[in-house]
Write a structure and sequence with these properties.
- By secondary structure, this protein is mainly β.
- The protein contains 2 helices and 9 strands; from the N terminus they run ααβββββββββ.
- Strand 1 and strand 2 form a beta hairpin.
- Helix 1 packs antiparallel against helix 2.
Length: 154
């Protein structure tokens, strides 16, 4: 934030009032991000949970937005993250209300994913894939975001 203010001050002096547009465009919201991450640790598996909210904004030409939540787990024995199966994990999700969400440049789609009954000892994270499609189903762009880790001690 300090860098943006300093850049604005320098640009204002060098370029006049028109510099504000440059700073404003640099501060625009990202097209794909994760927000609202939470991890609840507990001794009882049914009380352990992880949650995250995916936030998606359209790219130019978007006709349809989609995202996919994968929950990944790592244990001391596995050495690398592997996808956990269950429910709607690993399946593409689309806006349903309205189904045209993403066709307007100001649209924002937020979808929260909760998973309960985490096994321990292990660490979990969300791997979220974002996809934008245009005319004829042509993929315009993709993005992947990883959540923070949720460690469940044994």
């Amino acid at each position: 934030m300090k860098r943006a203010l300093i850049a604005y001050a320098i640009a204002s002096v060098l370029c006049g009032a028109g510099a504000f547009a440059v700073v404003a465009s640099a501060a625009e919201s990202p097209r794909a991000e994760l927000d609202g991450f939470a991890c609840h640790r507990a001794s009882d598996a049914l009380d352990r949970w992880i949650t995250v909210t995916a936030v998606m904004r359209p790219v130019p030409g978007t006709e349809r937005m989609a995202l996919k939540f994968d929950l990944q787990r790592i244990t001391a024995n596995s050495g690398s993250f592997v996808n956990v199966r269950g429910g709607d994990l690993g399946q593409w999700r689309y806006p349903s209300n309205p189904p045209t969400l993403g066709q307007s440049p100001n649209d924002v789609w937020k979808l929260t994913k909760d998973v309960v009954n985490l096994q321990a000892p292990a660490a979990y994270r969300f791997h979220v894939t974002f996809r934008w499609t245009g005319t004829g189903g042509r993929v315009l762009d993709r993005a992947v975001r990883l959540s923070a880790r949720c460690s469940e001690p044994g």
